[in-house]
Amino acid sequence: MADFANTLSKLFKDHNFYAVRVAEASGVDRSLLSKVLKNSRPLPYSAFKKILNVLNISYEEYDSLLRAYIDEYFGYDKYCEYLKILKKFSSFDDRKEKPVEYRNILVDLDLGHYERFLGIQTTKANNITTGRIYKSVIDKERRGDYLGKTIQVIPHITDEIKRNVKLLGNKYKFDFVITEIGGTVGDIESLPYLESIRQLKWELGRNALCVHLTYVPYLAAAGELKTKPTQHSVKELQSVGIQPDILVLRAEHELNAGLRKKVAQFCNVDENAVIQSIDMPTIYEVPVRMQEQNLDATILQKMGLPVGETPSLGPWKEFLNRRHHATEIVKIGLVGKYDLQDAYKSILEALSQAATYNDRKADIQFINSENLTDENVEEKLKDMDGVIICPGFGQRGIEGKFVAIKYCRTHNVPTFGICLGMQCMAIEFARDVLGYTDANSREMDQKTPHNVIDIMEEQKSITNMGGTMRLGAYECVLDPNSKVYQAYKTEHIQERHRHRYEFNNDYKAEFEKAGMKCVGINPESNLVEIVEIPTLKWFIGTQFHPEYSSTVLKPHPLFLSFIKAAIDK
């Protein structure tokens, strides 16, 4: 059992899979799975199949795990059984597998909005880059998968793109795959992806549908909308063998019936398949406007699926209604170093959602931490109802964050530190409360004598920076006597991380004695995930990124609590 158990344990560790979660998702007894991982009990074939169906892993990992299982329990004489299992549960052979219907797999750089709209937590499998495609092909070539053939864009690169597009859909038998090809039609880097889409449409027939988004500019001098860019864009697609089934036209003004008919005629698209997407006050209104134009029904009809009753979208419309009727303002200061606000997009959206559910409009003001000093901090922050200390990395702008944190702590301003923001809270507390004036993070100062933030001991020997990162979801146990517990209303949570440095537990006792409590702890590593000063109105820092899991219909409890505290200031 050792080889299989070790393979399974390593897989769990590499992907941050928790046995409890896997057991719950698969329906396998959690005590059984625990014993398997400890080499004390074999895994029944029926349970193994269930686990395979819920694991989100690569083909190579899938293959390795299956081989380990077969070798462990069946032996070489059962190798044919291995092949049967592989075919049944992986479905990676594009040439032989029958196309199936899929649902909600995303390939895009901006996964945040997909998560906020769909309420689905994405993984690295949902974002495919050109680098990953080429690396996968090169790795296969080195392994000998192509039997010495020369690697070419067609078919090897395009086949790999198609495999990735279909990967999760094949695995989980979803209803639809939603794939976004980024960039602009005609860009040289997009050509392999467009060819892959052309092939998929040919292979899948009616089970594939192409939606093309274009821009219809408005010429103010002439007072008219111009469709020529759309026509040329469609012709570019047609030149590579792709005929759009539906056109979505971005525009600043209403498109009249005549203009939409013209576009349909010159682009070989049905009139009811020309959808306008006019600029809205908020992106969350777009789905409602699309539904009003029967986009959902049009898609179902074109794919030969039955059109049922139109969804009411009740909770979504209720959110928009509360957002529309909110008149009072809550002012939030965003302290960070990036002038490009898209760097904090998820935080902005989480704040906006939380404000709506508190019947407020969020007035979010960016405060550049590089320009923040003891002399101007009061002027910058005095009107803020609450302050966010933003995540990031590196030395730039960090001293300004310390200034902001000290002001907020001493003036009892509701304050929320995220990732590096939480680390800055700890450093400021060590400097100004504990008296360690030279306290710092090893990231900023390798020689600091008071490293209240440091990299974990077992990671110090790793030279590859990516290898020292804590990525993905980790468990956290909350102190029942904390404000975070009041927000979550549960003791056990799971949140997403993206960082290298951690709170140094050597200082934990000192921090808690002085008033900063460590109220969230990872149960496996004992790492501090959340700090809080309970004597203040709301002063909380999280090592994880709660903004990643805040959605329209399920705003994050910490942001809800933070905004409420800011309102009650």
SSE layout:
Blueprint: H1 2-15, H2 19-26, H3 30-37, H4 45-52, H5 59-73, H6 79-90, H7 111-118, H8 130-143, H9 153-172, H10 191-204, E1 211-215, E2 218-219, E3 224-225, H11 228-239, E4 246-251, H12 257-267, E5 274-278, H13 286-292, H14 295-302, H15 314-325, E6 329-336, H16 345-357, E7 361-368, H17 377-381, E8 386-389, H18 398-410, E9 415-418, H19 420-432, E10 440-441, E11 451-455, E12 470-478, H20 483-488, E13 492-499, E14 501-503, H21 508-514, E15 517-521, E16 528-532, E17 539-542, H22 557-567
Parallel strand pairs: 1-4, 4-5, 6-7, 6-8, 8-9, 9-17, 10-11
Antiparallel strand pairs: 2-3, 11-14, 12-13, 12-15, 15-16, 16-17
Helix pairs in contact: 1-5, 2-4, 5-6, 8-9, 9-10, 16-22, 18-19
Core attributes:
569 residues; alpha/beta; 434 Repressor (Amino-terminal Domain); Rossmann fold; three-stranded parallel beta sheet
